Amino acid sequence: MRTLAFGWIAAAALTHAAAQSSPPVTFDQDARLSKPITAHWSRAPLRQVAERLSQETGARIACDPAVADEPVMMAVEGLSAADVMRQLARLLRFTWQRRTAQGVAPSYVLFQDRTAQAEEQAEIDRVRNEILAALNEEIARYRRLAQLPPAQRQAELDQVEAELRELLAGGIANLMQRGNDPAVGQTFMRAFATQALVAPVGQVMMDLFQGLTPDQLRRLEEDEVLVFSTRPGRGELPLPRNLATRLREAQPTVPLPRSLITAFAPGDATPVLDRLEGVMREQWGRAAEFRVSLQLQLNVMGATSGLLRVAPEPIGVDGPMGMLFSLGGLMITAMPRSLQPPAEDPAERERRFAADPVLGKTAKLEFPPPQRLPGLLGFFGPAHRAGDLLPHVAKAYGVQLVGDAYLRHAMDVVAPLGAEPQPLYRVLDRLAGAGRRWERDGDIIRLRSRTWAHDRRAEIPDRLIQRWQTLRERNGGYTLDDLAEIASALRDEQIDTLLFLSLAEGGRDLMTAMAISGNRGILRLYGSLGPGQRQALVAGRSIAARILAPHQQAVLVAVNRGQNRSFFSMFGFGALGGTFVGARTPRPPALLATALLTLEVKGLPTEARPPRAEPPAGGENVTLDLPDVTYTFRLTYANGEKDEYPILAVAPKPRPARPATSRENPR
Question: Fewer CB under 10 Å: which end of the chain, C or N?
Answer without folding.
Answer: C
